[in-house]
Design a protein that fits this description.
Elements lengths: L6 E2 L3 E2 L2 E18 L10 E8 L9 H5 L5 E8 L3 E17 L2 E2 L2 E2 L1 E8 L2 E10 L15 E3 L6 E5 L6 E8 L4 E5 L10 E5 L6 E9 L4 E8 L1
Antiparallel strand pairs: 1-8, 2-7, 3-6, 3-9, 4-5, 4-6, 9-10, 11-12, 12-15, 13-14, 13-16, 16-17
Length: about 220
């Protein structure tokens, strides 16, 4: 339900949301979905920033706009229910940042493109739940990329939280895969899961965190 997943930052100077896609990708289009009722005006006059390397800690918006490694795309005015922003660049880190003081409020972000190391492999990451953010820190969320996939999918876990296990279920509720030896680092968990042996269908991926929370995402095997 898009309305129940609508979360936001505090009111502050140039608040942002960002995601680490886990590896370098050739990014095609970013779709951002706005809320559809009273507070739609909050998503307005924002930048989409793309970088192959992490955004430096403490960098302001002006610093990033003048950084030669960072590609920037500006959206002027209030966003509609869905806005598509062509990126056509390579990057791993993607940030959406308001240009001035305000409350950043979104429902969903989708990023489509292809894997840089394999140009014929399509890539789509959907971040459906953008959790509450207080201050300039990342939203904690989980993404799958590429999705759809024919062989492997990267499970991108939340920053500063530990993934304990990943379970995959078919649409009949049967568990078809379990992953417990999760790799990653203190900044991000990225687990590559081999799904090449699964039949072509839609699956549910459930990611369990050490703090007891969990995220579910749909995965399309092609």
């Amino acid at each position: 339900d898009a309305q129940t997943d609508l979360q936001h930052t505090l009111e502050e100077e140039s608040p942002w949301w960002q995601v680490d896609l886990g590896s370098l990708h050739t990014l095609g289009v970013l779709d951002v979905y706005n809320r559809s009722e009273n507070f739609a005006y909050r998503l307005r006059n924002f930048y989409v920033l793309v970088s192959p390397t992490p955004f430096p800690d403490g960098s302001g918006l002006g610093d990033l706009l003048s950084d030669g490694e960072v590609e920037s795309y500006y959206f002027s005015g209030q966003a509609g229910p869905q806005e598509s922003i062509p990126l056509n660049t390579e990057g791993r880190y993607v940030r959406i940042q308001l240009s001035g003081t305000g409350i950043l409020h979104m429902a969903e972000v989708e990023i489509a493109g292809c894997t840089t190391s394999s140009p014929n492999t399509s890539f789509k990451a959907s971040f459906e739940r953008l959790d509450y953010l207080s201050g300039n820190r990342e939203f904690d969320t989980v993404g799958l990329a590429p999705n759809p996939t024919s062989d492997k999918v990267q499970v991108v876990g939340p920053s500063k939280n530990t993934v304990s296990k990943i379970l995959i279920y078919d649409m009949q509720g049967r568990q078809v895969k379990e992953i417990t030896n999760i790799r990653g680092d203190s900044q991000r968990v990225v687990e590559s899961v081999d799904v090449s042996n699964l039949v072509k269908a839609t699956y549910v991926v459930i990611v369990f965190l050490e703090d007891g929370s969990s995220y579910s995402r749909r995965l399309i095997k092609i």
